[in-house]
Design a protein that fits this description.
The chain is an alpha/beta fold and 401 residues long. It is built from 11 helices and 12 strands. The protein has a 10-stranded mixed sheet with strand order 1-2-3-4-7-8-9-10-11-12, covered by helices on one side. Strand 1 and strand 2 form a beta hairpin. The structure holds S-adenosyl-L-homocysteine. S-adenosyl-L-homocysteine binds next to strand 8 and strand 10.
Amino acid sequence: MSPARPPTRDAVVPLTLEGPRPKLPRGKPPRHLADLDLAGRRAAVADLGEPSFRAVQLSKHFFGRYTEHPDDMTDLPRTSRAALAGALLPALLTAERELSCDDGTTRKTLWRAFDGALVESVLMRYPDRVTMCVSSQAGCGMACPFCATGQAGLTRNLSTAEIVRQVVAGARVLADGQIPGGPGRVSNVVFMGMGEPLANYANVVNAVRRLTEPVPDGMGISQRSVTVSTVGLVPAIGKLAAEGLSVTLAVSLHAPDDELRDTLVPVNRRWQVAEVLDAAWDYAAVTGRRVSIEYALIKDINDQAWRADLLGSLLAGRLAHVNLIPLNPTPGSKWTASRPAAQREFVRRLESHGVPVTVRDTRGREIDGACGQLAASSRPSAPPPASVRPSASPPAPGRLS
Ligand code: SAH
């Protein structure tokens, strides 16, 4: 991938919600049709006294037309619309803030959930694809010291529908032609927003199914275009391999040696480099999918030539490629991205071991949309403090923004 082109700044609003983290109301997000498979939706519709084929109609509206609004559902009897939409398409996420850059082709959305939890998603349009980067948890419990989300701790898991809803919202703005480049579709989904996807296993796998099943069951995105990124929760990687899905696994390695990885990715104290990589190779063997090894290059911490050689020797001959990420420093961080010469040498050494390498685009940096920065400068709060400006045009209730 190419290095970032000089970004252009559009509507950039600082995200700073001050104050202590308030207690969120307890309880689960409301049930939504995306939480259920089609059989479950039919049963839910029948419980309302409606013919079960209404489940297909509602599903087509949500997954095919990206709408939740009863007025759009002209194929449903007017008398049933509100009850059906109210029961199966409750408002889950409200767009609180939209930030865009790269001439509008990168757009980050800050979402507020029913309980005030804040999560973010990022849409990135490239000439050949549109990638949605989604959150799987509000916050994260993995405590990686270089990651902004990791500093704040875990608030809660997102429901299946809360995850899917982020992608449907992106699909909606693309279909509407709101992203420069004309009407388009979401082609790729990466679980690289807030959270550790494999720590919210059931809801993430369910979300992958919803995203990839054809309409009306789901959105019809190709499984091969979905990437699940993990710190390396070994048992969950094994479980994912057995799901029969063809999704790409990304492993956030960041160091080839346990001594350093214990500090950069603290869960390494539980599952060490060799065990994580073994799980990755098993995943590759079962699925036939090349594993992506994520490596944030941090100046003078993990970018030494010997570490490149060690990494190269661990990966040589494996079904893997390395995705180098120039570190995106978190506010107040003592760490910075590697020098260009160190980065070039790191790439060269990996390549000399025959390991394919890409350097990740750093899209969205100036809107805190680059990896690890999502919602870090925001805090869950209800109601929002006066310092928060409302979106320019708040979405109509029940409508996807
Ligand atoms: N918890 C998952 C997915 C979320 S983070 C995981 O760790 O894989 C997505 C990727 O961004 C991970 O590879 C993560 O290590 C990386 N990342 C986090 N903070 C970063 C930062 N400040 N600079 C560069 N990459 C970062």
